[in-house]
UniProtKB/TrEMBL annotation:
One of its GO terms (molecular function) is 2 iron, 2 sulfur cluster binding. Pfam families: Fer2 (PF00111). This is (2Fe-2S)-binding protein. GO terms for biological process: P450-containing electron transport chain. Belongs to the adrenodoxin/putidaredoxin family. Residues 1-105 form the 2Fe-2S ferredoxin-type domain. Its cofactor is [2Fe-2S] cluster. Coiled coil: none annotated.
Length: 107
């Protein structure tokens, strides 16, 4: 299991625990944890409605792919640490990370 913290738009933080052995994406875990993630494209990196910002976390999460960057760069709010949660796999690299919800459906 991996543990990371999710911060909502109001600044409230909650620890989330997720299994590493199921091949899940961060988006799938956030949706299953009842966070307001639209993910209208179903995790294909085509809509950016699963936008998150990595506030604190290891650099091992890797760089965003070109496809992911194409979507992120079209957002009204784009940060150097912005990622699409559908493109981040649950792994031990997420352990201890702090992730802020930034999707357009989050108010």
């Amino acid at each position: 299991m991996v543990k990371f913290t999710v911060e909502d738009q109001d600044g409230n933080r909650q620890e989330v625990e997720a299994p590493m052995d199921m091949g899940l994406s961060l988006m799938e875990v956030l949706k299953a944890s009842d966070y307001p993630i639209l993910a209208t494209c179903g995790g294909m990196a085509l809509c950016a409605t699963c936008h998150v910002e990595i506030l604190d976390g290891p650099s091992e999460l890797g760089e965003a792919t070109d496809v992911e960057l194409d979507q992120l760069e079209n957002l009204p709010e784009y940060y150097p640490t912005s990622r699409l949660s559908c493109q981040i796999r649950i792994s031990d690299e997420l352990d201890g990370a702090v992730i802020k919800l930034r999707g357009e459906d989050v108010v």
